[in-house]
Amino acid sequence: xxxxxxxxxxxxxxxxxxxxxxxxxxxxxxxxxxxxxxxxxxxxxxxxxxxxxxxxxxxxxxxxxxxxxxxxxxxxxxxxxxxxxxxxxxxxxxxxxxxxxxxxxxxxxxxxxxxxxxxxxxxxxxxxxxxxxxxxxxxxxxxxxxxxxxxxxxxxxxxxxxxxxxxxxxxxxxxxxxxxxxxxxxxxxxxxxxxxxxxxxxxxxxxxxxxxxxxxxxxxxxxxxxxxxxxxxxxxxxxxxxxxxxxxxxxxxxxxxxxxxxxxxxxxxxxxxxxxxxxxxxxxxxxxxxxxxxxxxxxxxxxxxxxxxxxxxxxxxxxxxxxxxxxxxxxxxxxxxxxxxxxxxxxxxxxxxxxxxxxxxxxxxxxxxxxxxxxxxxxxxxxxxxxxxxxxxxxxxxxxxxxxxxxxxxxxxxxxxxxxxxxxxxxxxxxxxx
Length: 434
Prior knowledge:
Blueprint: H1 2-10, H2 16-37, H3 39-50, H4 54-82, H5 84-102, H6 108-124, H7 127-137, H8 142-149, H9 151-170, H10 173-195, H11 219-226, H12 235-239, H13 242-271, H14 276-301, H15 306-325, H16 330-359, H17 364-393, H18 397-416, H19 428-433
């Protein structure tokens, strides 16, 4: 029966894994646009509405990233155990509801509470379960598939940011929040409920759309095809590896810089005399250009080591921040926008690919959840750090210098990271933790 089903599946013109890529792209579209990038154009309107400082308002998006990071290890573990479908649906429901409730917010504490809930929701409907789903469906073309999927982040950054900017100008920030909540429900709940499949064997298929093998198609043979060289890493053994901690260090400092720069790019450009509308376009293009970076670095990671690709990615971001520190003209602003957007885009695609390269698939969701936690903590601290520095000294220069140093640390950490030796968990406690 499995072979027959497989034959039917192979007769399709399009491998179903590419439909999985499409619906996961839609999830990440609203994840980035409604949860992170749109806050860049909401920063000043919210500061005026709640009559508070730029640092205080930045605390809301920092809470969003903090909560998204804190739930990531749990989301990874639950995804390993139950598959991504239920996790994504749960996250979409609560994130959409919280965004719509933000349209009624009248106090700063309400902004904090609801952005924390959005963090839990979009942390559940985000990169961890999405990466598990794509990794199950692709092996040889995994980097390309993840790179295409992560373009959803860039499209959300470009289109939702522009939509948010328009709604604020034409109506109000309250209308923008209401629209974003509706977008989350529309782009997450129906596609995931109707079309998400955890693994190709659920449909009698093999990863990458490979033709059926001569041996009977069983869950064991499909698992071997999905990960032909499975490693013995578990959550317990990975946590004992210096490699994991170096990865977490690298993505923490890169996240610190990305969070701080992106959330204050719009404010920084308007402070230098650029109109709010033009700065909104620049922020949207920064995120949108990331789509090319996600595709390019995902494709590159199929050709070279994802670790090396990540080091190139961080180096280009460092150069872009150095340009940002020296900006004196509009032309230099656009150099920064295009270079930083392209390089920054690769980071989200490379996080899961570097994790799989070092630790394999058996406990990928759980291990990647910890890596995502480190990256989210950095992204949560970055906006507060930049906003706090601005409130104290009246300039972003010191913050940008700090972020440049953070990239140097990230590059060094990945340079030192080496493939760990698998150490099977032997004790009952370790097996339960894994």
